[in-house]
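Example (one chain per record):
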Amino acid sequence: MTLCDCPTLLCLSLLFFFSHYSPSLPKMKFQDYEPPSSPKHMIPKVTLLAILVILIFAVTPLWYPLLSYSSHLNINKNIPSSSSSYDQRQEENLPSTYVEKCDIFSGEWVPNPKAPYYTNKTCWAIHEHQNCIKYGRPDSEFMKWRWKPSECELPIFNPFQFLEIVKGKSMAFVGDSVGRNQMQSMICLLSRVEWPIDVSYTTDEYFKRWKYPSYNFTMATFWTPHLVRSKMADSHGPSNTGLFNLYLDEVDEKWTTQIEEFDYIILDGGHWFYRPMVFYEKQKIVGCHYCLLENVPDLTMFYGYRKAFRTAFKAINSLENFKGIVFLRTFAPSHFENGIWNQGGNCVRTKPSRSNETRLEGTNLELYMIQLEEFKKAEKEGRKKGLKLKLLDTTQAMLLRPDGHPSRYGHWPQENVTLYNDCVHWCLPGPIDTWSDFLLEMLKMEGVRSAIS
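Predicted structure:
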């Protein structure tokens, strides 16, 4: 008998009590019972019935919390399961307690001989400068790892399940080229189910839209390397990487006017803030980062980074009709060694680091902490308006993957390219595919929370 049967059990117990232990009723077998000769010893049946009804209504509500708990235990049965044709299907139906107890972003990389789940020959979405195998990278072990959280398992991305969850919805990747790198990775992972069709409103490669017809799911990328309005002031600048004017209190309308219709927004930003910048607020110069201009104080990149994220979050929280979920995908560190990107720096490692071999520090730590601080403020403000902001915390996992970058294998050796050794973007297939593992798990967790609430 389950908890749901407890009111029935109560009724039977009360009936048994009144029929056997009432001081006004003699104890005897039912077949031997005869009515007492005098009516004054009998409790009227109507009175007994009334008492019974009152007790039932008084006691039954006490069982409601248990009934509710029982339904929560079964909530994961409604999570869509993977297709039987998918050979990597998982038993991801997680109990609700899992949502709170496991930090999926803290862990280690462990071998995964089954990876990769696509190749550079089976996926056309890979940009040339991330097509490491095509351009001669000799090792392949960098593709054969998965992320293992310390206290639980993180299932490998299931494309069937993902598309079922996002059916009829839309997702926008807002940020720089690493964000576009993430979207391309997801297209490759989803290619085992379906290829998208191009439904872009423009021929500009920085603003692409892809639709999966069978699932009515749309993905879009919005190029906004500084998140706020910016423009090139000098194509060379102090370091030959350009000098940019950043209007830190002004939104970049190329994305802020477009995202209200989306169900999910994945926001990112970081590497462009290393370049020289002049900061404007209220249309006036307030400082800069390595601009080397007279009478302009160097406020450092961190000042602009904080203000840019603050403005971006404010823009999202100000949207009148947006009802979706915002994921802040945290900063993914680069791994240049023996010099910076344009001074001989390179990334030649061939396997992940262990968590006890390296730590987040210096500039990487500062950028990460700024993101967390601004996210916390924005999440609090968004909650007041019924918006959901979530942290897609990829920083620690990617800090441990110095082996995952294209290095010099993003172009032919004889080509004259700007970024000779790329230790910023990620090879495809490669470690960045795990970001889809994270994202799907977060969507499943959100589904469990929504069902419970």
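Caption: The chain is about 30% helix and 15% strand.
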